[in-house]
């Protein structure tokens, strides 16, 4: 019995070592080539040509191993029409992005909380990165101010103060994020497509609508050249920052068409794993949000850390343990008020999950206190 225990533990340690080695190699390759600097394109900064390309070979390994397959649902692959720009942009912007990972944490924590409370993907925080480099005092020549580069009419519409004798609330990280969230929700109601939302945030609703009409398509990759160069590059910069800081793609990097294919693929994976996804109510859909997750996460650790009900978690996330154990990416669904806490505790949850995998101790009892 003891010999069997040590052989099983040795097997798990070997698997973890291979996983850890692969992760380290990927991180080393990633940090060797990626970089970031602010160019102030939120409301009128310098332009970057679509012809920019990477100087480092092999960068495509960051994007789903370079195996883009147009015949399969996207699996969060980088669209090939964005590869050259994204490669070049990241390769030029290494130092500042690496620094932002640390000094930007307090601002990202605010963004995660407010965006989740407003039913928005927390990854939209990267729009503020390309708008202002997280600068509260940045002012564009067009009059946009603050970390979200809000124009005066937008600030007035969402109740922000700007008058003489009072602080310009567009410079307040919390209040400006609340206002930006309202604007982002309005844009999504208009277009139903996150890439078009980012484009309209930079170039205006009218500019995007004209591009749709001229292209005869609402697919960003078809209409992009009917937009101003600054606007189409703004979208690609958003995608680039998302890929680096998230370690991969996600819902906000997809067009509406790609999103439909991705969701269909996830549904198919659920069926193939013999775990049919439940039909969620409108209330459940409106009060929850998703995040792409991969790694050795343990459902029990997530439930305990976030003080969730295990039955509710399993209803929202059928087949979680199976897909995660198979090394697949899972769309973790959590209540809106828990998503920001998950983002804050994400690394701690992963560490505890790995420790649990390697520990001979009994698994975490998630039933106590969560009934």
Automatic annotation (TrEMBL):
Keyword Membrane in annotation: yes
Membrane-spanning intervals of the chain: 16-38
Keywords in alphabetical order: Membrane, Transmembrane, Transmembrane helix
Record bears the keyword Transmembrane helix: yes
Domain Transglycosylase SLT: 116-222
InterPro entries reported in the protein's UniProt record: Lysozyme-like_dom_sf, Transglycosylase_SLT_dom_1
Superkingdom field: Bacteria
Entry similarity comment: Belongs to the transglycosylase Slt family.
PANTHER family, per database record: MEMBRANE-BOUND LYTIC MUREIN TRANSGLYCOSYLASE C (PTHR37423:SF2), SOLUBLE LYTIC MUREIN TRANSGLYCOSYLASE-RELATED (PTHR37423)
Protein name, as recorded: Lytic transglycosylase domain-containing protein
Record organism: Deminuibacter soli
Lineage: Bacteria, Pseudomonadati, Bacteroidota, Chitinophagia, Chitinophagales
């Amino acid at each position: 019995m003891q010999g069997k225990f040590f052989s099983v533990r040795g097997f798990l340690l070997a698997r973890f070592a291979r996983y850890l080695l692969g992760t380290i190699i990927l991180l080393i390759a990633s940090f060797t080539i990626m970089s970031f600097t602010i160019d102030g394109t939120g409301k009128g900064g310098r332009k970057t040509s679509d012809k920019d390309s990477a100087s480092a070979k092999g960068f495509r390994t960051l994007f789903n191993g370079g195996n883009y397959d147009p015949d399969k649902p996207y699996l969060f692959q980088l669209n090939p029409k964005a590869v050259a720009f994204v490669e070049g942009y990241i390769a030029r912007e290494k130092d500042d992005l690496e620094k932002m990972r640390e000094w930007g944490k307090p601002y990202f924590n605010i963004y995660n909380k407010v965006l989740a409370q407003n039913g928005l993907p927390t990854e939209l925080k990267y729009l503020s990165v390309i708008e202002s480099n997280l600068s509260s005092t940045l002012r564009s020549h067009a009059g946009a101010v603050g970390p979200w580069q809000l124009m005066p009419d937008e600030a007035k519409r969402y109740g922000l103060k700007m008058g003489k004798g009072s602080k310009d609330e567009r410079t307040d990280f919390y209040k400006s994020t609340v206002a930006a969230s309202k604007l982002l929700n309005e844009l999504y109601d208009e277009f139903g497509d996150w890439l078009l939302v980012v484009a309209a945030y930079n170039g205006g609703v009218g500019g995007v609508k004209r591009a749709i009409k001229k292209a005869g398509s609402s697919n960003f990759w078809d209409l992009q050249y009917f937009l101003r160069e600054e606007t189409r590059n703004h979208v690609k910069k958003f995608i680039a920052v998302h890929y680096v800081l998230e370690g991969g793609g996600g819902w906000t990097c997809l067009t509406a068409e790609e999103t439909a294919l991705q969701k269909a693929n996830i549904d198919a994976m659920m069926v193939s794993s013999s775990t049919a996804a439940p039909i969620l109510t409108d209330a459940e859909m409106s009060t929850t949000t998703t995040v792409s997750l991969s790694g050795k996460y343990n459902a029990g650790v997530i439930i305990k850390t976030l003080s969730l009900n295990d039955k509710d978690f399993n209803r929202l996330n059928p087949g979680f343990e199976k897909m995660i154990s198979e090394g697949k990416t899972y769309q973790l669904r959590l209540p809106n008020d828990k998503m920001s806490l998950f983002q804050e505790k994400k690394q701690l949850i992963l560490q505890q999950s790995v420790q649990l995998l390697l520990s001979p101790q009994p698994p975490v009892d998630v039933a106590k206190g969560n009934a």
